[in-house]
TrEMBL record:
It comes from Acorus gramineus. This is Prolyl endopeptidase. Belongs to the peptidase S9A family. GO terms for biological process: proteolysis. Residues 5-406 form the Peptidase S9A N-terminal domain. GO terms for cellular component: chloroplast. Keywords: Hydrolase, Protease, Serine protease. The lineage of its organism: Eukaryota, Viridiplantae, Streptophyta, Embryophyta, Tracheophyta.
Length: 705
């Protein structure tokens, strides 16, 4: 079944799609209504506010009636004679840099990976996938001539970084398992072959390249999911203005340790969880250290900033006058800035509060903070996008000098009236609860529901989960959910161990030999929703995507009666067989997350929860919609197909609940389509859940919006 070029497999998948369509035929009217509701909430004009970088304002918008965005720029309006000259030259007009719609119309599919404008603003380097298989092609566009530099068409490119003078472009490429492992350097305008700068030969490590915010240096990072073995160097620094001054090693690899490097006024700053004599009770958490440029190769690092109590550092961004820190306090995201430069006499760790940080004002129900581009190193304005399950995206500019903020843009939701911060807390309730897991650990649970419903244990519900790679479960605003909330559904998000948001230890306590904790946490959250009257105990469903599909599949095997229905999207279900095949993409890289099944102990642990290997014979399973993508390079099409076949074959034959497989034959792991295709796909999933709950009486479940 792993031979995707087998015509028998294609025929089988087409028959599965036909069966799924036949099963869902009685939901056609409901799906049409759901699609219309979702599309009706999309404003005619969807755009991002311009963000200044140098003399230009960069922005995106989705043209009316189109599926995909367009990347544009225009010169910032100038006053006086400069503005009049630019106007006469036509230089205030909009420039279209990249139109996703044109590419999609030409190839039928488009996924733009990375976009990097050169420091002199004359070139755009970007990576493009037109098959769905995540095989990204590098292209470089001359923004003055609007032409593509043909030499630059290179396959399997992942990350990009420009030299300071915009004359050189560094890029990383993948091997046959989609592992970024090499860094090459291209000289624009030259016929000389691109030079190889670095090769990572260890299959457990990936290479990433980036530029420091001040543009002075390019870093080559070679790391695994969490760290690497002793004796190699995971970070190299290249002078961005002198590529001949090749590699400066920064830090040695240490198991479980990561480094994220920046540069400021003659000093390198690193965000790391490396052991420190000053860390004390914060050992294992991220802190900030620094060293002078001339001390880099001596590894003369001085520990600088520790997080406060119950606070973890997630990321940092550095500017000429400020350092921005992304924080989590008890799982809640926060932002703060401190003034730069930091006193050069500090030689040991100092608590964050000693630097008089300014904590950016945010709404009380905040769940998501996404940084803007923030390219301009000299600015004192920091842009972010704030969101929560009850608050559509709000673009905020924080002035780090005046310590004030301004709302730049609010996401428009047609048909709904917003309140302060553009939220809908008058219509929907968003609660944070803590669920006690099997071992006494408190698991954060976010619960969303309409204020019109009664918490009497009669509502249908959905529980989302992921719990892998240290990633934070997405709880940002999604207007699609209104169609279920208005129909009385409760939607919950379980931040189980293995995910992110509460430090390195939270991830580690749900990975490898501790993976079962993730599954037990998810089950505990589902049980809590029923016991506390949020949902009807026979009307709870679960949704998991990719590694989240593993979570949901394993939970169903352990407690099949907990869920009435489930949606598993491109799910990782056959983990034993996949992890035993090192030729598959990401397998070796995933040893750090799930363990190495070539060792007996890890194999037994993986085998104990592997969804495909633990399906219960003769037991009634939930109704399930399983989705897969034919060109998925991360999770093979055979995983979902085998799971569906086995569930149908060995579970209770007299159970009326159905299992359907829906395969997208034209896309990869991240699906396809833009705004309107997304609405159709979501309507299909919601209609499946409504049908699975026995709630197809459409007159009873009209949406209010």
């Amino acid at each position: 079944m792993s031979r995707t070029n087998d015509p028998d497999l294609s025929d089988h998948l087409r028959r599965e799609n036909a069966y799924a369509d036949a099963f869902m035929a009685d939901t056609a009217g409901l799906r049409g209504r759901l699609t219309a509701e979702m599309e009706g909430r999309i404003p005619q004009s969807v755009s991002t506010p311009p963000e200044r970088w140098g003399p230009w304002l960069y922005y995106q918008y989705v043209p009316e009636g189109k599926e995909y965005p367009v990347l544009c720029r225009r010169l910032e309006r100038q006053s006086g004679w400069v503005g009049r000259v630019l106007s006469l030259m036509g230089r205030e007009e909009e420039e279209i840099l990249l139109d996703w719609n044109e590419i999609a119309e030409q190839f039928g599919y488009v996924h733009v990976g990375t976009c990097r404008v050169s420091p002199d603003h004359k070139f755009l380097a970007y990576t493009l996938d037109i098959t769905g298989g995540e095989s990204f092609v590098l292209q470089v566009k001359n923004l003055e001539t609007k032409s593509i530099i043909m030499k630059s068409r290179i396959e399997q490119v992942v990350s990009l970084a420009w030299s300071t003078d915009s004359h050189w472009l560094l890029y990383s490429v993948c091997d046959d398992t989609q592992r970024p492992y090499r860094v090459l350097c291209m000289e624009l305008g030259s016929n000389v072959a691109d030079s190889l700068l670095y090769t990572e030969n260890d299959p457990q490590f990936c290479v990433d390249i980036t530029s420091t915010k001040d543009g002075r240096f390019i870093t080559i990072n070679s790391n695994s999911k969490s760290s690497s073995e002793e004796g190699h160097l995971p970070i190299y620094v290249i002078d961005g203005s002198n590529l001949q001054n090749r590699f400066w090693p920064v830090k040695k690899r240490v198991p479980g340790v990561q480094y994220f490097l920046e540069h400021h006024h003659g000093c390198f700053y690193v965000l790391t969880n490396a052991p420190s004599e000053y860390a004390g009770s914060f050992a294992g958490h991220y802190y900030i250290a620094r060293c002078k440029d001339e001390e880099l190769q001596l590894a003369s690092w001085h520990d600088v900033i520790l997080p406060g109590q119950d606070v973890t550092f997630q990321d940092m961004d550095i500017f000429d006058g400020h350092l921005v820190l992304f924080l989590q306090r008890c799982g809640v995201p926060m932002l703060c800035s401190i003034d730069m430069p930091i006193d050069g006499n500090i030689k040991k760790l100092t608590n964050l509060e000693d630097f008089s940080p300014w904590y950016f004002p945010v709404p009380s129900n905040l769940c998501s903070i996404l940084p803007g581009s923030n390219h301009d190193y000299m600015t004192s304005i920091y842009r972010v996008v704030l969101s929560s399950p009850v608050m559509p995206d709000v673009v905020i500019d924080y002035d780090m000098v005046k310590r004030t903020f301004s709302i730049v843009h609010r996401e428009e939701v047609v048909g709904l009236n917003s309140q302060s911060w553009s939220d809908f807390i008058g219509a929907f309730t968003c609660e944070r609860r803590e669920v006690i897991a099997h071992d006494g650990v408190r698991i954060p649970l976010t619960i969303l529901y309409s204020q019109k419903i009664l918490r009497d244990g009669s509502s249908p519900g959905i529980l989302y989960g992921y719990g892998a790679y240290g990633d934070v479960l997405d709880k940002s605003w999604c207007s699609d959910r209104i169609s279920l909330l208005d129909r009385g559904w409760v939607i919950a998000f379980a931040d189980v161990r293995g995910g992110g948001g509460q430090g390195v230890s939270w991830h580690q306590s749900g990975a490898q030999s501790c993976k079962l904790n993730s599954i037990y946490d998810f089950v505990a959250c589902g049980t809590y929703l029923g016991d506390e009257g949020y949902v009807h105990k026979d009307r709870l469903s679960a949704i998991g995507c990719s590694a989240g599909g593993l979570l949901v599949g394993a939970a169903i095997n352990m407690y099949p009666n907990l869920f009435r229905a489930a949606i598993l999207k491109v799910p990782f279900l056959d983990i034993c067989n996949t992890m035993l095949d090192p030729s598959l993409p990401l397998t070796i890289l995933d040893y750090e997350e799930f363990g190495d099944p070539n060792t007996q102990a890890d194999f037994e642990t993986i085998r104990s929860y592997s969804p495909y290997d633990n399906i219960l014979p003769g037991v009634c399973y939930p109704s399930m919609l399983v989705t897969a993508s034919f060109h998925d390079s991360r999770v093979g099409i055979w995983e979902a197909t085998k799971w569906v076949a086995k569930v149908r074959d060995i579970t209770c034959p007299n159970c009326a609940r159905s299992v359907i497989l829906k395969v997208n034959m034209n896309s990869g792991h991240f699906s396809e389509g833009g705004l309107f295709k997304h609405c159709e796909d979501t309507a299909f999933k919601y209609a499946f859940l409504i049908k699975a709950m026995g709630m197809l009486d459409e007159n009873q479940f009209e949406s209010d919006s």
